[in-house]
Amino acid sequence: MHTRSLAPWQHDHAFGQQARQSGERRTLAVAGLTAITMVIEIGAGIVFGSMALLADGLHMASHTVALGLAVAAYVYARRHAADRRFTFGTGKVNVLAGYSSALLLGLFALAMAWESGVRLLQPQPIAFTDAIMVALLGLVVNLVSLVMLRDSHDHHHPDDRRPESRGHHHGDGHGHSHGDHRHGEDHNLRGAYLHVLADATTSLLAIAALLLGSQLGWTWPDAAVGLIGAVMVGRWAWGLLRHSGGVLLDAQAPAALQDRIRTAVEQGDDRIADLHVWSMGPTGWAAAMTIVAHEPAEPDVYRARIPDEANIVHATVEVQWCRTGRETAGC
Known about the structure:
Blueprint: H1 24-48, H2 51-79, E1 87-90, H3 91-121, H4 128-148, H5 187-216, H6 220-248, H7 255-265, E2 271-279, E3 285-293, H8 299-305, E4 312-321
Parallel strand pairs: 3-4
Antiparallel strand pairs: 2-3
Helix pairs in contact: 1-2, 1-4, 2-3, 2-4, 2-5, 3-5, 3-6, 4-5, 5-6
């Protein structure tokens, strides 16, 4: 790990990422619970010769892998937060894990759709009682897991930011601000939550279809709800994939956040000529701006104008003199 001691006038780029994230312990607990259930179901399926138990155990194995990936990402991001090879810390390691979870969810949805389509075209006999018991067991485990991960789908907006002590100023016309902030959206935890939610949803749909099939002797409702579940899971996967992918590609922050910063910083004849705001992962946003003015102030003046609720954890400010006369519109 590439770390070194810092001079008094330097600052680190960990941004609080070295601290244990709020969802790490919960995700670890859910991963352990899922793994235990997986082992029990696979073992019971082999011992009792139940294909339904064995199939559900293998299904739980896919979610165990996804949850294990989420835990590994938390640990890696925390242990390498001070590694200076990461320009803005390790916040995007968690985003990358969320993106990977979205890909796995998408593959899971395709597998569900394929298997359901096959069963619609080629109906197979179903051991309804055994299948219902397996689905109930899976549902109970998933409901407990959802309660443990219940905060994972909450989006911590910029309003969640705690007031910071303003950061460093450099005499080269650039300034940086750092602070202790609450987390933004945790894509890693959201990915874990969606995996469990997908499992719970398919279990619930399966129970309804199996109960209907056991009463009427039909097998097609089981395949039909599988297709419905595939569509739902696919939509969740696409939403997480699109959002986490935007963060990984340094997409600009929402226009409302940019406007809030621009309104706060532009005072008198100070104008923002260039503004870039992008997500750094769960820890908050980074900003880089160029200020032009006829009588520019020091960078730390403009940095101090950035509102706390914007949740900017790293700000670079460049100041330029406006070379046109005041009577000229614009600069």
